[in-house]
């Protein structure tokens, strides 16, 4: 029975009791409390307990009804927060939400520790927000670009980073836009834009922003490879610029040897040797790559001068190379290195 029906029927019952009680000629009934005497009709003393019972019952119903309302409201909030958390996890983010019930809290803790990957093309849900997120995710995974205004994600979000890479593939000019403000984007997006720009834009349009970009060894090798492919030998980096680029990047001797081989096509021997000599002066760990370039140009005396002052366990390959030459066996350094 609904509470409204209960109240209406109870009131009808109270009126019926009061009507019957007051229709009787039952006189008065007095109660003395200390010095006070209360005189009321007998019918009133019949009705008052029923009225008090009615009021107590209504209070009881409202109390437990309100308690149930708070319980239901808590469950609703838990469900809403679980949906919010699911949406966050779908886009690769996490969120802090409070849960009222232990069960919802446990589910929330589990969801916070798992990654979602939607693979079913028949994915279905009645939640419009999740449906929209699904559409965005499938579009991005299909190498399509979704407007950043629709996604509303941080630029370092994995989904947003992939979305930006998709745009780079679609719009060559966007890679240049990223290079104009590299501090705004995640480093892997900047690297992707940098590599794409080197392949699809003019090298001169990339060189403008070099000083503002944090290069890694892969980016440096690709950049110098493109620079050394300049057949007419115009506008290639000078030695001082190359030194500055290398100084800011964590490179190995193997990386430098690759770079040296590329520049050997467009630099004079004197320029290339000077470059690697300056590199070894800047950092002794680059002596190995300098020795390699010296051996390529058969600068034997210069090699001996360096090796004679080295430790016994240093530059073993180059010492072996000289020993073989002294024995009349002429090998190229690339066959030994």
Brief sketch in words of this structure:
This protein has 337 residues and is mainly alpha-helical. 65% of the residues lie in helices and 4% in strands. It is rod-shaped.
Based on the model shown, name its key terms.
mainly alpha, transmembrane helix, two-stranded antiparallel ribbon, 17 helices, rod-shaped, Probable membrane protein Cj0124c, membrane, 337 residues
Can you describe what's shown?
With 337 residues, the chain is mostly helical. Among the domains are: 3-78; 216-337. The protein is built from 17 helices and 2 strands. It has helices at 3-23, 42-90, 102-111, 128-141, 148-151, 158-170, 172-180, 187-200, 203-207, 217-228, 239-247, 253-263, 269-282, 287-296, 300-307, 316-326, 333-336; strands at 28-33, 36-41. A two-stranded antiparallel sheet has the order 1-2. A hairpin with a 2-residue loop joins strand 1 and strand 2. Helix 12 runs parallel beside helix 14. The radius of gyration is 42 Å and the shape is rod-shaped.
